[in-house]
Amino acid sequence: MKFTFLLTLLFAGIAMQAQVSPSQLSDDSTRSIELREIQVNTTARNDRQRMLQFYRGNLSAGIEDIMARLPEISLIRRGTYGMEPAIRSLSGGQINVLLDGMRIHGACTDKMDPATIYIEPVNLDEVQLQTGTQGFLYGASIGGTVNLKTATATCHNTGKISGSISSGFQSAAKSFYESAQLRYSSGKMAVLSTATWRNSEVYRSGGGQKIPFSQYQKVNYSTAFSYQLNDRTLLKADYIGDHGWNIGYPALPMDVGYAVARIGSVSLVKEQPGNRLYQWTTKLYANQIRHYMDDTHRPNVPMHMDMPGRSMTWGMYSEGQVKLNKQQQLQMIADFSSTRLTASMTMYENGQPPMYMLTWPDNRKDQAGIGASWKWRADSNWTLQSVVRIDLISTALTSQEAKNHISILGVNDAGRQELLKNISVTANRKIAPWLQGGISLAYAERMPTATELYGFYLFNAQDGYDYLGNPLLKPEQSLQGEFSLQAQGKKVRIRTTVFYHHINHYISGSIDPSFSTMTIGAHGVKKFSPLSFAQLGGAEASLLLKPIAALDIVSTFRYTQGKDNSGDPLPMIAPLKTISTIRYQFSRFFLQGDPEAAAAHTM
What DSSP letter does each residue of 282-334 carry, written as one string? Predict the structure, then answer.
């Protein structure tokens, strides 16, 4: 087992932010919470919201630090920055990572830039997490959805300017964190602006050893504008900019010279537009990501390479919530998005002319979908819920150069259309005053990603192979279920969940000896191909304990196991892990320890 321990002594009054009392962890009532206290909402699982508020003791923590505390989420760590989220060890195209319901596609073929890196806690209001059995309402998915909702400028009549500043330092990497927030409201108009700067040097392990290429710098800024058109209608405009540079990745052969995101949207929100329709939101958005991989700071590079990438997405969605009667509610969404991707590589060998190729041949993905979630409270003990979604997805290569690249795979026309179907049923029952249980069953599909369809000689540092796409891949299909129990008393709450996925057409890499390697030192070439099936299962648990008024103990546990149709382990499955927090509250101080333990990860 591997252990890390962090001991923190914080002065509660310095941060100028409201701290949620740990005693609220056992309170089921709905509360209004300050911006710095991030909410987590999932279907019928508001206990996660209270857990995350408790974890938010360190104001300089990043989004990744916060998500890692949830039992369902693990992080794929390639460096100290840009960690890729996984829901129950499903990641990439198997899950949705959204920002305010908007689709954002990273511009890096090596997954160095998940959408989560473009948000900071200072401009985040809420984290919504839905696991596989219900996580496809906002888009076809077999693994679930993480939706990061940003803070909104609230209109009121104060006519005053208010704000806050935060500052932090972490000794392990001599990391500095500075952020500021400014609010202004005057009746019908309100503005919220934020800015964050992070500067981290090379990370040092517990024994004092420096980890090369683990530094990073970044600046994040945002502005949210609201205008109250009338008592029931709000017009919103939001913009987020994020600039990162000199970003090291110890687990990869290259670093990042820069990663730039520009994200904008305009929304119209109507409250109670009808007798039964009590909220309706329509949003139009666009975003652009530019990413540049760099190896100029690496020693003994046999061949220098430039690897730029670009992602452009625009889309819209319209979402409404309807109260059918006292027992039934209906949530509906219709959305469309279009994403264009391109990435290239230029290799410079001494004495030879530069060699150029497209690693993501120019491609486009258009997606249109409709979804609905129906919830019925049959009586005081039973609740039933069903989620249904249909997506029509079209992919195509957009240039002759891209089509020429893909022709080496024996495919002349790589364009295609797929109709994806997703459906789930969930039942929750209150078994006793202190015990409740739930069961969910679902069928879900997901589209292969641009990397899996069109990737061209993408090196995977994990297994040492170059990868080629396969435009003929079928969508993955998942039959899945989960069962949960929650017991709660005055001083303790325990929640356990077990889950299982049977995934048909599971996409994996298989060695293709007919192709030669492109990367120096690569073991060979793999082509993305479907396995007949794969199986994934595991368990999660969380404990909230308050033995005395001043002491809180929060602990989470997760374990996942995955195997393919041959019984071999699936890649990138997180090992058994537990994270705990022990906090003792003084009058104006609290003392907190965070022990973390994980089993050894073997391939």
Answer: EEEEEEEEEEEEE-TTSTT-SSEEEEEEEEEEEEEEEEEEEE-SSSEEEEEEE
